[in-house]
Design brief:
Layout lengths: L6 E2 L5 E2 L4 H14 L4 H7 L6 H12 L10 H14 L3 H6 L6 H24 L3 E7 L32 E6 L1 H10 L6 E7 L1 H4 L5 H5 L8 E7 L1
Parallel strand pairs: 5-6
Antiparallel strand pairs: 1-2, 3-4, 3-5
This protein binds a DNA duplex (21 and 21 nucleotides) through helix 3 and helix 6.
Length: 228
DNA sequence: AACGGGTGCAACCGCAAACGA
DNA sequence: TTCGTTTGCGGTTGCACCCGT
C-alpha cells in the first residue's frame, strides 16, 4: 500500500498520508465511542488531524464494511448505467454498490471507465443505424422523434402498416441526432421502435442500448434489434 | 542504472446544505 | 431570523509507482 509522507503544517495539524499508528488510534476510538462530531473526535482520540480528515479516512478507508479489491464486471456495468442516469453524483452511485465508496467510484471513473465509455461511444457513433418507428394512433408529438436533418414530412401520413395495423416508417438516423431527440424535445410518443444495425456490426456483440443509450425511455421504448 | 512521462488513487480543498443555539 | 459549526459532496492535487527509453 502506498502512502504519501505526512507533515505538520503551521497550525500543528498533520496532513498527508496516515500512519498505521494513526489508523489504529482512529479505529480504537470509534469502536469505543462511535462516529460523529469529527473535530471533537479528533482531539479526544489524540490525533493531530482535522475532523474532516478523520471523517474521510474512516469513511473511505477504515470502515469495516468497505470492500477492497478490484471492481467486478457487474459492478462496472452498474456504475456505467448509473452514471448514465445520474451523472457525477458519486455518493448516489456508490450507495448502490455495497462496500464501495464515492471516492473509489469517482477515481475509478476518472482514471479508467470514462475513457472506456468514450471509446465505446466513439465506436458506436460510427455504426449506421436505421430506426423503424411504430406509432399507435393516439400518439402525440411523434414528430419530435424525427431529427431536423431528416425529412420533415410526417412519416406516418402515408406509410405502410405492419401486421398489427401500426403505421411504421424506416429512416436513416445519425446516432447523435437520435440521442439529441430525447434531450431537445418533450417527447410524448407512444409506440415502439426497432433498431436495425448492419450485420457486420452485429458480429461485435453490440447491444441496442450500447448504440442508442438508455436515457430516452420515458414514453416509448426500443424493443427489437434487427441485424440487416 | 538513470531518467522522464504517464497513471492511480489517497487526501485535500472549497462550497453548500443541514443543524443547533 | 441570524449566525456559527458540522457534515457531505464533487473537483482537484500531488506523491508514489510503473514502464518505456
Amino acid at each position: 500500500m502506498k502512502r504519501k509522507s505526512s507533515f505538520e503544517n503551521e497550525d500543528n495539524v498533520k496532513q498527508g498520508a496516515w500512519s498505521a499508528e494513526e489508523d489504529k488510534m482512529l479505529i480504537n476510538y470509534i469502536q469505543l465511542h462511535g462516529e460523529g462530531n469529527w473535530s471533537e473526535l479528533s482531539k479526544r482520540a489524540g490525533l493531530k488531524r482535522r475532523g474532516k480528515s478523520c471523517r474521510l479516512r474512516w469513511l473511505n478507508y477504515l470502515k469495516p464494511d468497505i470492500k477492497r479489491g478490484n471492481i467486478s464486471k457487474d459492478e462496472e456495468d452498474l456504475v456505467i448505467r448509473l452514471h448514465n442516469l445520474l451523472g457525477n453524483r458519486w455518493s448516489l452511485i456508490a450507495g448502490r454498490l455495497p462496500g464501495r465508496t464515492d471516492n473509489e467510484i469517482k477515481n475509478y471513473w476518472n482514471t479508467y471507465l470514462r475513457k472506456k465509455v468514450e471509446q465505446k461511444q466513439h465506436h458506436n457513433s460510427n455504426i449506421p443505424v436505421k430506426l423503424r418507428i411504430e406509432a399507435v394512433n393516439d400518439s402525440v408529438n411523434t414528430m419530435s422523434l424525427i431529427p431536423t436533418s431528416c425529412d420533415s414530412q410526417n412519416p406516418f401520413a402515408s406509410t405502410p402498416q405492419d401486421d398489427r395495423n401500426h403505421p411504421w416508417t424506416l429512416q436513416d438516423f445519425d446516432i447523435t441526432d437520435l440521442l439529441m431527440s430525447h434531450e431537445d424535445y418533450d417527447c410524448h410518443f407512444r409506440g415502439c421502435a426497432c433498431v436495425e444495425i448492419p450485420l457486420h456490426f452485429a458480429d461485435e456483440a453490440c447491444m441496442i442500448n450500447d448504440v442508442v443509450g438508455e436515457t430516452w425511455y420515458e414514453n416509448w421504448k426500443i424493443n427489437e434489434y434487427i441485424p440487416l
